[in-house]
Amino acid sequence: IQQVFKQLFYMINAVTLNNLLLRKDVCSWSTGMQLRFNISQLEEWLRGKNLQQSGAAQTLEPLIQAAQLLQLKKKTPEDAEAICSSCTSLTTQQIVKILNLYTPLNEFEERVTVAFIRNIQKHLQERNDPPQLLLDFKHMFPVLFPFNPSAITMDSIHLPASLNLDFLNKV
């Protein structure tokens, strides 16, 4: 059950983040607020179902950081440093794309300046990020089956002749 929810939450993360990276109309402060609220609801649900050890919440980390990125101030060099230190699960390309797509919804907000984005790129140039922008939403985590050794020894097993397993020999 834990592995199923980890996979499901990864798919939620990948599809949502990919939509965020491809749609200018959703890159805003209010979308960041809505994403963070929805993610907290998912995390609360995991805690309520005692699934916090499943790793499902960790698969949402890039989406959490993208929501934070949308909510953070984007003006000063200190803001750039805060973004670089808090967005460790996002690639440089993803951060820059979100900043380029950021669209203010009211007159109190300003667009992200080109100088600010270049400052971010300068801070993140040492990172060795993968070149892909979008997440692979078809990625599958390996299924792990726990090994539970049996208390029954092989010597005590009797195989009925009706099973036609004559090729099996006791050693």
In short:
The protein has seven helices and no strands. By secondary structure, the protein is an all-alpha fold.
Principal-axes geometry comes out as elongated
Cα separation of the termini: 39 Å
What is the succession of H and E elements?
HHHHHHH
Overall average pLDDT: 93
- Which residues sit in consecutive blocks of at least 5 with pLDDT less than 50? none
Whole-number tally of structural domains: 1
Q: Roughly what fraction of the amino acids lie in strands?
A: under 5%
Which range best describes the helical content: under 10%, 10-25%, 25-40%, 40-55%, 55-70% or over 70%?
40-55%
Radius of gyration (Å): 24 Å
Number of helices: 7
Q: How many distinct beta strands?
A: 0
Largest sheet: none
Secondary structural class:
mainly alpha
Would you write up a description of this structure?
With 171 residues, this protein is mainly α. The chain has helices at 2-22, 29-48, 56-59, 61-71, 77-86, 92-101, 114-123. It is elongated and about 85 Å long. The mean pLDDT is 93. This is MYO5B protein. Residues 1-126 form the Dilute domain.
What attributes characterize this protein structure?
single chain; 171 residues; mainly alpha; 7 helices; elongated; Vascular_dev_regulator; MYO5B protein
Would you spell out the secondary-structure blueprint of this structure?
Layout (H helix, E strand, L loop, with lengths): L1 H21 L6 H20 L7 H4 L1 H11 L5 H10 L5 H10 L12 H10 L48
